Amino acid sequence: MHKNQSIIICFTFKAKSKFEYVRKFEQSDQLLPQCWLVVRVDGRGFHKFSERHEFAKPNEPRCIRLMTLAARRVLMEHRSILLAYGQSDEYSFVLHKDTNAFNRRASKLASLIGSLFTSAFVFNWSICFPDRRLLYPPAFDARAVAYPSVRTLRDYLSWRQADCHINNLYNTAFWSLVLRGGLSANQAQERLKGTLAADKNELLFSQFGINYNNEPEVYRKGSLLVRASLLDSQVDAVAEEASVGDNVPDVGEASVEEVSEIAAKVAKAEAESASTLLHIDIIKDKFWTENPRIL
Ligand code: GTP
Ligand code: MG
């Protein structure tokens, strides 16, 4: 670099424009220290999105797979995420309480995780829906919240799993009445008004021969992705294929030595970022006491 050039760059770097003061309008949104951070993404208008894309009712397995592929991508990219829990059109990502990722800024964390999740959802669409065109670009909102203790964090996760259970039981009963019982949506809604969980279980069994407890766990419990390196107990992991572009480096014109070096790096990155997919109870203590290194 020419001597004069460096002087000019130095000068322009140091000089503050008269507009600089507007920075002061930016508010700090740093989340509290030593709190567990949770970023939850949720599909915008997925009621309409699922109708337009003719999702199976009440559960579309291809969409569940796509959501999990997108979540895996987020875990690969953001190493301070310990686990993620997803159900319906949402995924919650839990970051370690000591993380300093993005200076713990709520807007940075939420926007980066939300946008990566959304782009990965679109990027992998054709893998999960090879015969269905994406009709318009979906969006996911994202929020970041700090939880001050393991208790509040676990209560947060329990809340999301309880939501999964309540909605799935209702939806299973509702769509059985409509699709198999021949009721209109209004009639099914009326039929289920005021019913308790036991009533819905009984209705499913007596009218449709469905034992709700035998419904697939992925629908009843949602999906938990945990960093494999943090698991202690023997768990029934669910195998899944990788998504397009996962850990596939562009080796271009690289030599044999360079390619093997890249392959070794990829293998290391894969081992570090590996996550295990589970469909299990996270409300009871069992999973947490058997895997004490997660939280
Ligand atoms: P906002 O999040 O407020 O924008 O509204 P939303 O329409 O996304 O509703 P919400 O997030 O409360 O709920 C998600 C909705 O997505 C459900 O009510 C269903 O209508 C739909 N949905 C999610 N997963 C499935 C699925 O597997 N099959 C079908 N048929 N619908 C689904
Ligand atoms: Mg939604």
TrEMBL record:
Binds 2 magnesium ions per subunit. GO terms for molecular function: GTP binding; magnesium ion binding; tRNA guanylyltransferase activity. One of its GO terms (biological process) is tRNA modification. GTP binds at residues 42-47, 88-89. The keyword Transferase applies. Residues 152-284 form the Thg1 C-terminal domain. InterPro entries: Thg1_C_dom, tRNAHis_GuaTrfase_cat, tRNAHis_GuaTrfase_Thg1, tRNAHis_GuaTrfase_Thg1_sf. Its EC number is 2.7.7.79. Keywords: GTP-binding, Magnesium, Metal-binding, Nucleotide-binding, Nucleotidyltransferase, Transferase, tRNA processing. Adds a GMP to the 5'-end of tRNA(His) after transcription and RNase P cleavage. This step is essential for proper recognition of the tRNA and for the fidelity of protein synthesis. Also functions as a guanyl-nucleotide exchange factor/GEF for the MFN1 and MFN2 mitofusins thereby regulating mitochondrial fusion. By regulating both mitochondrial dynamics and bioenergetic function, it contributes to cell survival following oxidative stress. Belongs to the tRNA(His) guanylyltransferase family. This is tRNA(His) guanylyltransferase. It comes from Macrostomum lignano.
